[in-house]
Amino acid sequence: MNMQLLSSLITQTLVYSAPLILTALGGVFSERGGIVNVGLEGIMVLGAFSSVVFNLSFADQFGAWTPWLGVLVGGLVGVAYSLIHAVATVHLRADHIISGTVMNLLAPSLTIFLIKVIYGKGQTDTIQRQFGYFNFPGLSEIPIIGDLFFSSTSLPAYFAILVAVISWFVIFKTRFGLRLRSVGENPLAADTLGINVYALRYSGVLISGFLGGMGGAVFAQSIAGRFAATTIAGQGFISMAAMIFGKWNPLGAMGAAIFFGFAQNLSIAGSNLPVISSIPDVYLQAAPYVLTILVLVVFLGKSAAPKADGVNYIKSK
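RE: above sequence
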């Protein structure tokens, strides 16, 4: 394998990993607080849709900053959408799986309806400003390593990795993280110590909405380039598998998301790789989803989720 091919493989893996990392981190925050957020797929759909609409509307005004502002818009829309799940599970004490499934069913239909209202067709135009490739000043000049990791690479991927490190610090090294983990393990004990269980669970879900919306926005503006009903097709569920594979640890989820990003990239880069090029394309395209199922089957029973994950809490009087 030559250096150019290896560099391209690493770069494209990072491109596909970035939205998975952000969304998986969102799942970590939600489930560490005790709320199962199956609705990550729907949140990604809303984040992707809103970022593309923003990009098409304001690319002339904001220029090169448009994709990054689109990520922020996608995150804020994700927060608003995840509020539905938060209210349903925390205050209305709905089943977490059912609430998340409804969010996943609602999001594609709502966005396609809005696209037809706004643009009069079933999908948007291609966005004018996309995430391109970035050269890190100085680092890209390092022999071999610079060419592989820091030259013509994905800046959103390194942003997602930075967010993963910050998330690990927040969850395991701050008072907020300790309290969030406590309500995910034993909300009654946390409540008796004066911790507001409801507020922390809301915080976890809303943070997951923000990160999931950002993940959808990154995917739409770096890979898809537009929005249609099939733009987000399983990435939210792959992110959940990465969260489980990573044992609800931000750094573990990041590593698992990079692995799944590599699996997604195989369907494109596989034709240029020895041995893999002989595998039919249809199998390579199905590989990420097959791996997701295998990970859930193999690791779900072995990975220990927070003890109160998915358990509704009723505040005692």
